[in-house]
């Protein structure tokens, strides 16, 4: 590889890193001040539905949503609460479409008008889409957090800006993202192969993540776990192939810090090869 290409890769890697906010460490709710008050109604609703019994800490705060560590009858829960529509920007959603959720023509027109009604409808679709993808990937045996919902799932999904899933980590800390994890050379190779296989299994299902890199992959007990799915696209999206190629570029670029020297083309070829050869392994349902 020439020095010119090495400099281009370094610049691209820096730009990719700057797109991400450095995640905050685990913070107790008592230390959040007024920040916790804005989500109290959601906490109360989830407690009333019997979904959670306690919210323990804030794990990660981003532009679109904040993730909390919570507890419920099913153990530790990751509670992802989308920000109020007035505080969020949907200007970059055009390339992704509306994820996998579908809506009526009237709702699509409201979204296109970019008013408050459209923003609220788009938020509902993104929450529903993330749940749909989680369930589809979980049932197909892909490495994703197990989705969790309450006893009245349809009422819950339609009335709450939150997604609940099995917490990846333990009482003391969440699983680190691969972008932050310290890996030995053998661990880096294992993480790379697992990440390629997960991307290939997505591709085999006709899906593209849309934001696939070490920033959206967790590392826990030697295993890679995919997260963040509201922007996942399927074959109805005319940009699907370009999104797949971009994911291959982002994955290869973000793995360079772990000593993996692959590029967009080799990554894409391997993902497509694996998608043709991997055997499906759906999760077994207990009777």
Order of helices and strands: HEHHEEEHHHEHEEHH
Q: Would you identify the CATH H-level superfamily of the largest domain?
A: Phosphorylase Kinase, domain 1
Radius of gyration: 19 Å
CATH topology assignment of the largest domain: Phosphorylase Kinase, domain 1
Largest sheet: 5 strands, antiparallel
The CATH architecture term of the largest domain is: 2-Layer Sandwich
Number of helices, where a helix is a run of at least 4 consecutive DSSP H or I residues: 9
The total strand number stands at: 7
Structural class: alpha+beta
Strand arrangement in the largest pleated sheet: 1-2-3-4-5
Strand residue percentage = 5-15%
Question: Could you explain how this protein is built, in words?
Answer:
The protein has 287 residues and is α+β, with helices and mostly antiparallel strands. The chain folds into two domains: 25-166, Phosphorylase Kinase, domain 1 (2-Layer Sandwich), CATH 3.30.200; 175-277, Transferase(Phosphotransferase) domain 1 (Transferase(Phosphotransferase), domain 1). 41% of the residues lie in helices and 14% in strands. It contains nine helices and seven strands; from the N terminus they run αβααβββαααβαββαα. A five-stranded antiparallel β-sheet has the order 1-2-3-4-5. Strands 6-7 form a two-stranded antiparallel ribbon. Helix 7 packs across helix 9 (264-277) and helix 8 (240-254) crosses helix 9. It is globular and about 50 Å long. Residues 32-38 and 150-157 have low confidence and may be disordered.
């Amino acid at each position: 590889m020439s020095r010119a290409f090495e400099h281009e890769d370094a610049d691209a890697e820096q730009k990719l890193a700057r797109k991400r906010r450095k995640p905050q460490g685990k913070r107790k709710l008592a230390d959040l001040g007024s920040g916790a008050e804005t989500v109290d109604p959601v906490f109360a609703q989830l407690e009333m539905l019997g979904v959670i019994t306690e919210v323990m800490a804030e794990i990660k705060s981003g532009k679109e949503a904040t993730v909390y560590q919570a507890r419920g009858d099913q153990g530790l829960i990751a509670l992802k609460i989308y920000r109020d529509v007035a505080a969020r920007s949907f200007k970059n959603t055009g390339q992704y479409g509306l994820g996998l959720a579908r809506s009526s023509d009237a709702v699509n027109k409201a979204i296109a008008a970019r008013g408050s009604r459209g923003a609220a409808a788009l938020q509902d679709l993104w929450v529903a889409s993330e749940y749909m993808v989680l369930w589809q990937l979980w049932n197909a045996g892909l490495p994703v957090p197990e989705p969790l919902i309450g006893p009245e799932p349809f009422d819950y999904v339609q009335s709450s800006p939150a997604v609940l899933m099995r917490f990846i980590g333990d009482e003391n800390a969440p699983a680190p993202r691969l972008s932050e994890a310290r890996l030995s050379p053998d661990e880096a190779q294992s993480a790379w192969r697992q990440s390629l296989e997960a991307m290939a299994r997505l591709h085999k299902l006709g899906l593209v993540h849309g934001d696939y890199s070490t920033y959206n992959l967790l590392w826990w007990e030697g295993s890679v776990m995919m997260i963040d799915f509201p922007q996942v696209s399927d074959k109805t999206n005319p940009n699907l192939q370009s999104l797949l190629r971009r994911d291959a570029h982002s994955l290869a670029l973000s793995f360079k810090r772990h000593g993996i020297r692959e590029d967009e083309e080799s990554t894409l070829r391997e993902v497509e090869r694996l998608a043709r050869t991997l055997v499906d392994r759906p999760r077994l349902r207990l009777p």
